[in-house]
């Protein structure tokens, strides 16, 4: 099953005031006091917001609006700027709302941030992609597919379209048999390495519909038969963002923690740091950070905290480091 990122309160749809206990009041008051009067107590904001679980973020967002009559995100947007302010705004709303905002930002301005788009919509469970699509429409009164259709094109758009369908099959040993594995290996080869030109749509469909258990067997049999893994076959047959996105999608099914670690590495690679991608990845995968951090250390030989210290600074670094430390075990 794909990694799931949303807390149970979102699946249950119970975001009414009755769902919020009194234990949240202290956190809401701490945020209010940090933003009250002249100047902002950034360290106090970090202390409160960085340690909230995804479920508590839902509750704090709801209670703050209920008590103070203002959306917490809007308050923090006014109080804090830059990458620090943006990270706080993502932490001030439920995870599904934050992801909608991330997609909007990926589509904003000159050029589209394809990496951020495929990292949000790719590798999701069927129920989470449905929640995301519904929330996007609730906020922006626009279908998520139409939003992305206006931003993307070609095979990359086709890949995103498959992701948005939420059509991963449930693993069934009576259906996902050895014969089914052999059939998918043959189909994958015919559409990729065994064909002049690649049928990307066919490959996307196999990857998107196959449960991880089945895809793992397909990958193993493909390697046994053709001496390369599915990862290598995709790397050889595709290029550009389409290749990056497809490798990410496959990775999220077969090696999810390593794949997220590589996404963080990508955000910090080259000249300059992609702060938005870094922020979004760390916040989105908060529930799985212990495993991601272990994979990151294995991949790079450095701790995630060491990378943050090198790549970013100020309150922004303090916030992300506090969040990582709070979720390290």
From TrEMBL:
PROSITE patterns noted in UniProt: ANNEXIN_2
GO terms under cellular component: cytoplasm; plasma membrane
Entries under Pfam families matching the protein: Annexin
Top-level taxonomic group: Eukaryota
Listed GO MF terms: calcium ion binding; calcium-dependent phospholipid binding; phosphatidylserine binding
Homology family: Belongs to the annexin family.
Protein name as annotated: Annexin
